[in-house]
Amino acid sequence: MTTFHIHGGIPLQGEVRIQGSKNAALPILAATLLTGDTSDIRNCPQIADVQHMVSLLQSLGCRVRRSGDGYLVDSARAGARNMSGDAITGMRSSLCLLGAMLGRFGEVAMEHPGGCVIGKRPIDLHLRALEKMGVSFSEEDGKLIGKVGRLQGADIRLSISSVGATENILLAAVQAEGYTTITGAAKEPEVEALCRYLTACGAQIEGVGTSILGIRGGEPLHGTEFTVPADRIVAGTYLFACVGCGGSVLLENAPCGQLEAVIQTAERMGARCQIDRREGGSDICGADYGHESGLYVQAPERPRALSRLRTAVYPGFPTDLQSMALAVLTRADGKSCIEETIFENRFRVVDALKSMGADLEHYTPNIVLVRGVPSLRGARVEARELRGGAALVLAGLMAEGESEVMGCAYIERGYENIGKDLRDLGARIVSV
After folding, report:
1. Has 242 been annotated as catalytic?
2. pTM of the predicted model, to two decimals?
3. What is the mean pLDDT of residues 400-428?
């Protein structure tokens, strides 16, 4: 398993290009199943989770090959076959194949999905919604079995704003008979990107970008070309790396329109952020992702503390960046309070940060108090999940002396090449 060796205390300088979005690419790749045709999915990040999804599609009979910075996926010969259990249980995002398989084949048999241990994340919301569309679920030999004769449109109200459930309903609804309404739909940019891809394939979806989606099902779908938008979480990670380490960086291709809450938080910490704009532009399917070509970040001499930082569903501050913000605030000037409202286990990184000299205290299970210290010290720590692992890399960059971050297979699930990206910004980090 990869270990990062980091020599900390070096300000970051330079520019780095932001990779394609993991959380957009995975459901879009799953959606290629619905077309029975060839799609050219561009700007796909070369990360472990994408490789897992490609393997799953191939196990279903899709022909998938690398093409430039993306993949050509031909799903014409796909069938309802058994998928690799290891790939399913190791990747939570494999769950989006549930809606795609039911939409294409009317049946699915899959292991219960896994991924990072950051919370319970039950799939009941997904199953109840699909049951309203006529699907019957059972469990056989530890596998989830779903079957339906013909999916039916339905009026579905989500009790919580779930990205995964919204995506699964969308994937099923575009193939259902009749009209489906999703009330309480997640508004995350990744859901919008999936809608844009499906629309480009011929689907009729109304209310894209809002909490109420309307899908007229049964339209014939075809393959298309689609460019995956840049990864807002990777951009936020490198933004906070700069704020914590000092220096100034240009995040090329950063999706600034999706980062308003993140940029505001960085500015509250004392950073100066400037959007580098360009004239016009949209992706090949007409989706406007903001007209920005980058984000310039100039760090403060020392981060300022935040009286309160609270995670929230989009467009609030993303839970996927909470660990990075926590790492930066460990050396802020003053006391901070961080409240996690999405996943109950997002604070698994606290003990590792404390071993590096951070002064942290659990006020409640979902609130951590941070007393900023002048500097962290290098230590040997272990990543236990994707975003917490990235936060430990940031802590190692900020710390005095040498650090080792073990368990980096978690980090590689979401970052194409975090070591190289940070070296391009002047960091001293190597993987072994």
Report:
1. no
2. 0.93
3. 97
